[in-house]
Amino acid sequence: MNKELVIKYLNRFRQLLEEDKATCLEMKKKFDAELSQLDNLRVDLDNIIESHTKNIKELEEIVLAIGLS
Question: Looking at the record's lineage, which domain of life comes first (predicted)?
């Protein structure tokens, strides 16, 4: 194989690697945005669960108080 052909193939391989890197960076940005949204949703759900747990406990106390009276 001559030197020019080797250089041609190496440059093509480098180009493919650059294209793949760009694709991976785009995917990472997309997934980072989605993960951020999911993290916000998780916090919202945690807050809802905490609120519902508190409300359930209060209702149980009310039911118990009514049952004792």
Answer: Bacteria
Quick: pLDDT tens for 17-29. 999 999 999 999 9
- pTM for the whole thing? 0.60
The continuous run of DSSP H or E covering 69 comes out as: none
What are the C-alpha distances in Å from 11 to residues 1, 2, 19, 66? Answer: 15, 14, 12, 81
Q: What is the DSSP string of 10-61?
A: HHHHHHHHHHHHHHHHHHHHHHHHHHHHHHHHHHHHHHHHHHHHHHHHHHHH
